[in-house]
Design brief:
Two copies of one chain form a homodimer. By secondary structure, chain A is of the alpha/beta class. Chain A contains five helices and five strands; from the N terminus they run βαβαβαβαβα. In chain A, strands 3-2-1-4-5 form a five-stranded parallel β-sheet, with helices on both faces.
Chain lengths: 143, 143
């Protein structure tokens, strides 16, 4: 049984998320998704959608066998308990696979790291573009 | 085989949508979802997310066996071709079930109409509240 683990914030769900998760799922027999905690999103704006709600939506997707919230204190803790055979990275996730390998190895893990390069070129295929569209529609107008 | 049909816009997907679709699916053996066309959303603000993208997300949900875009010219056309045994209405969908029955009957259809009363009391369980949160976070700030 090949367990694949994917990770991400999954704020304002869009087809880019779906593509990443479907491609991840296709690499193994089971896909577990670690959803980032609100507290730990520091490299981009805080999520609009709270973590419990992001978890509920990711759990509802066909591609996802199980979704869990990550640890607030150690981002590797959840990966350690899941013991994945494969970890996938999205095309825009800025982890260095080599550094990731080192950190995982310190914890006794040696999963394959696979970058999912595919992305979905569509009008609103990023959380940022959804926010931008809402702001441009309602700027200076009553809501 | 009991075919259930649910309908909606499904803009900015949230747990209220998931609950409506899961409850709908539980009433039969197959759930087909008719996703409203951009052109036909007139009783509330135009969707933020374009119809093809809303269709993609709804199709990716576990509860959904098939999702299709509705007709742009006759909202009953798709229902007529799907011949549902049950049509579900969300708690906030303002169709009058009696009037709906009359319109369906004119087209030779007599499905059961079931109102899904349940809703999800959560911070961002409406597309409107997601838009409001984005506007309040970024009003007067650079994005």
């Amino acid at each position: 049984m090949t367990r694949v683990v994917a990770t991400g914030t999954f704020d304002l769900l869009h087809p880019g998320h779906i593509l990443y998760l479907e491609r991840s799922r296709a690499l193994g027999d089971e896909l577990v998704v670690i959803v980032a905690r609100d507290l730990n999103v520091k490299h981009k704006p805080k999520p609009i959608v709270p973590e419990q709600q992001r978890l509920q939506l990711v759990s509802a997707l066909k591609a996802v066998d199980l979704a869990v919230l990550g640890s607030e204190t150690d981002i590797f803790e959840t990966i350690q308990s899941l013991k994945p055979d494969i970890i996938t990275l999205g095309y825009d996730q800025h982890f260095d696979p080599a550094l990731l390998k080192v950190e995982l190895s310190k914890r006794g893990l040696d999963p394959k790291i696979v970058r999912i390069e595919a992305n979905e070129p569509c009008e609103l295929c990023s959380s940022r573009s959804i926010v931008a569209k809402i702001l441009s529609r309602y700027r200076g107008r009553r809501f």
